[in-house]
Every structure is written in structure tokens, then in C-alpha cells.
Amino acid sequence: MRFSGTETYVATPDLTAAVNAAVVLERPLLVKGEPGTGKTVLAEEIAKGLNAPLLVWNIKSTTKAQQGLYEYDAVSRLRDSQLGDPRVSEIGNYIRRGKLWEAFTAPERPVLLIDEIDKADIEFPNDLLTELDRMEFHVYETGETVKAVRRPIVIITSNNEKELPDAFLRRCFFHYIKFPDAETLQRIVDVHYPGIKHRLVEEALRTFLAMREVPGLKKKPSTSELLDWLKLLVSEDIAPETLREQDGRKLIPPLHGALLKNEQDVSLFEKLAFMMRREQRGG
Prior knowledge:
By secondary structure, the protein is an alpha/beta fold. Helices cover 43% and strands 14% of the residues. It has a 5-stranded parallel sheet. It has a two-stranded antiparallel sheet with strand order 3-4. α9 (182-192) packs across α10. This is MoxR family ATPase. InterPro entries: AAA+_ATPase (IPR003593), ATPase_dyneun-rel_AAA (IPR011704), CbbQ/NirQ/NorQ/GpvN (IPR050764), P-loop_NTPase (IPR027417).
């Protein structure tokens, strides 16, 4: 069982090596990288590439580790007891299985994505240490122990919003997805838009990479945003020559809302365009 990428996902050699190392070691793969570099999609593609079911646990600021195991709905049980519902005699009727429980008891070895773990409270990763190590947990309300039939492939993503505890990091295999170079970006575009005009892609990539190098950007445009932008360029039949123009009026590319996602960055490019026009007039 080895991952080598898929037809719709360009995986670099170091990324495929990290995935396969985590599988062999039977440790969670902790993936970091800029937003939009394909961390979440990676888990989907691993599941596709290994022909395995995918379970997704999306983490929020209010998420607790216990929710990944199970939740006991005592309120519903109390209400049903007041209504005389016969189900109250079986406490298991009020146990809601979490994603780890589903992964542990899946009939096939699944891929479990714990997405954006750094959004949760700082104690969240530590609260999962025992369960991820032992691949089992105890259900106190019913007295049963849930043990993994087979160890799931665990992918954990982080946007580095919070530092993760050292004890948690020791139990993971780590990989940082670097921002793709021009050649890799070209391959990614080819996968998503195989029939796109080469000259348009060439000019779009040049403009896109130049934008990322502008000092002072609050948020650099990402790979996913490049793909959205290219889709719009094709839809609106934007000519490659339009992207090549370098006068001050054209410094901000057409349909830039797909690339620049806050007013500070738009303002920055507007100021640069103004300075360029002033220099041109002075010349």
C-alpha cells in the first residue's frame, strides 16, 4: 500500500515519501504549509490513490477532543424519560459516535483527516495523545472499550495559527508543503486545465509569481487562487497580451479579486500603479 499521487493531484517526491513513511511507521502525518497549497485535498487524494474510505473531522475553535470519540446526550435521555420513551432503558441509544470511533470500527482501513487542528484549544492535541497512540478508548457510560480493528491512516493539517505541543509532535511524522516552483505550478495547471492555451498560462504564471514577490503583501495568492483566476481568464477570453502589458494602468491584473483577498493588498497595488504612472510621466 503505497501512495504515488493521482491523476488529479500533483504530488512531489518529498511529499509522497512523507505519506508512505507515515503509513509504514503507523504514525499520524502532520502536514503544514501556506493556505491553499493542497493540505486538505491531500487526504482526499490519498484515500483515492489507496482506494480507501475517507473520514473527515473538521476542527473548529469550540471543538473538544472528546467529540472525536463520542458524545453522551444526557439531555435527550432525560427528555425521553419524562415522555415515557422505552429507549431510555438502553443508554447506547444516546451515545453519538465521533470520527475516531468511526475510523476505529470501519470495515476497511480508512484515511482519517483531522483538518486544521491548530484552530482548537491548545490542550486539544494533548487530549488525543493516548487515543492516537493506543488506538483505543473507553466508553464510561456503557463500560465498553472501543479498539481499532485496523490502524487508520491519520492525516492532520495545521495552518500554524498555534504552536502544537512537543509531546504531540513527537508522535507525528511531519511534512511542510513548500509553495510550488514554476515547473510544478505548470504541472498542476496542466492537470486541472489540460486544454488551456500555453501562452495564456505562461503569462498568467509570470504575473502570478511576480505578484507573490511584491513586498508588503498581507496575503500572498495561493495555488488554489491561481486555478480560480485561470478559470476566469479562460471564461472571459482574456488575451495573453493583456497580462503582458506593464504600464501603470495594467499593474493590477484583470479579475484580480480571485488573487487579492483584502483591501490592504488591493490598495498596495493601486499605490504601486500610481507610482509607476508618475514615473512614466516624469520620463
